[in-house]
Queue: 3 jobs
Job 1
Amino acid sequence: MAMANSTYPRALACGDSGVSIEFGDRIHVSINERVLALDASLAATPLGGIMETVPTYRALMIHYDPVEVSYDRVVGHALSLATDQAQPKVVGRRLRIPVCYEGEFGVDVDRVCGQLGLTRNQLIDAHTAPEYRVFMLGFMPGFAYLGGIDPALSLPRRAKPRHGAPAGTISIAAGQCAVHAVEGPSGWHWIGRTPIPTYQDGAGPHFAIEPGDKIRFYPIAPQEWQEMKRAGLAGADLLERVC
């Protein structure tokens, strides 16, 4: 069996049908770019027996059928692609996403403002100013982890997670921002909600947001949120693609 290297990229066996190709040990754009480049290269140069690839912040998880292909074959193929200097760079889309920060849509806004010493307008300005990078999807279907948040909005996770974060919730914690695609539990701070459905069961593509995309948020009023939500339920494509 191939052994994991002491330097990156390296392979880490995950049971008898998975391997993680690791590119680093921290959250960094250049590391994530290499993860996404390998994912794209494997899609362009498929190997029989590989069933699924899952890009994360710093590694690509590869699920394979050990009856069809060996661990050594998967690792050799993946590391060969990962060290190829001609590997393409994945260029994500630039997207604009509306968010309502008021009332029931931003249930934690007042508490977060109190903790950070910000007014509501200052919080909204700080949250909408940066361009965020989508590093990965995980935890729940379509849950997008974003980097690039203003340090002024840095807060630890809540001491106790809560149930029932609605689909579309925009949350912050631990120097990150997230877009919740489906309802579920969360230990993050819920500062807003978007009317755009970012996950659709049974439709393709399933996820409106993908790793490598760049996102800017912009504020909308509750009435506009309701109008856009109705338009989305009627089949309108509300995701604004800048490029």
Job 2
Amino acid sequence: MRHIRILVFVFYLCACTAVQTQTSTPTFSAAQIDAEEQAVYAAVLGQLYSASSFVIMDTTATDPGGVENTEQTLDYVLQNLHDVNPKTIENFRERNETAAPLQLDMDLGVAYTLLSQAERNNIFGQNQSGWEIFYSRYPDAPGIITLSRVGFDAAFDQALVYVGTQSDWLAGAGYYVLMKKVNGAWIVDQKVMSWIS
């Protein structure tokens, strides 16, 4: 009889621990995730660039070619980042399996224009003065920015995002940026260059 009581008590403790574990991980609504993603975009753009406006590709990517090489690139990036939460990487992979359109009404705290691939082709397909045309239309932009979806850890205090910039024919670079939330604000923690031209 005593063994049965001990066994029941152990099951009770395990059940309580399981419930506590489930409720200790915060859950976030789609609207909260969108707001956090926009906050990460705003922070990374503000901390990496000195610009009053941005031109951002309207579809996400994880490198200049899109999202096809994400796994290969992540293998390299993870060798050069420290203290990355596995949930952050898992979420980044999930959210970047396919390219996604960026929202037209993002709150980035700065002026921006979303540029479609068709518009980009129109600017650069006319002749070799594509960058002159681009900067005549967008004189304050640091070039064309490409963003990935943001990967978050479960507590939404660590984030991983890809940011690429092309500013001339042979002037560009891409970075994977690890962000952390400090006192409610996102800051750049680490960054790894994934390509340069």
Job 3
Amino acid sequence: MTRIIQGVFDFQRKVFGPMQGLFEDLHGGQQPLALFITCSDSRIDPNLLTQTEPGELFVLRNAGNIVPPFGSATSGEAATIEYAVRHLRVRDIILCGHSQCGAMQGVLAPTAVADMQGVSEWLRNADAALERARGLEPPPTPEQILPRVIEQNVLLQVEHLQTYPEVREAAAAGKLRLHGWLYHFETGEVTAYDASSQRFVPLANAPRQKLLAPLNESGES
């Protein structure tokens, strides 16, 4: 706690003063550029990664950057998505996974988290990512399986996003874009899913348009 409390004092003394005008402006409300959904992992810092200021990202974090499908249960994820899209009218949703994700390691080895009931139940929202990773051609090697599960989980959760009525409506009206990212924190690289090539490519090479089509009424993309 000493390190954390000292950080607060350092912020107040060294950071807040030069940025006081910004914080005073934010007192009147927020207009974030995007909803950024990512993992709770302490190695991930969305604002550091994107070099954004307070007020520019509306952030949703949980274990495994998971979005439960709409209607599965009342959740903070559902409330955050609804608020971001309907009230804040964000134009972009970025779903960002990351390398060496502990949650996806739990999907790969469920016995390792079997004694944590909440974790085990939560990770069921990502089970399909493992099935899809195993079904890839060519089949992933043991060294490749975790990275492939992490990738497939990003795509799975973007699909789950599209089950939310407010997301479908905004995307269909051309007012919302969905993006699937992967942050490789050990190298600083960010890759993004390119639907045209059906693979993750360096962010600089990824198209900036909507990456995945909204789901139709039957629930299929």
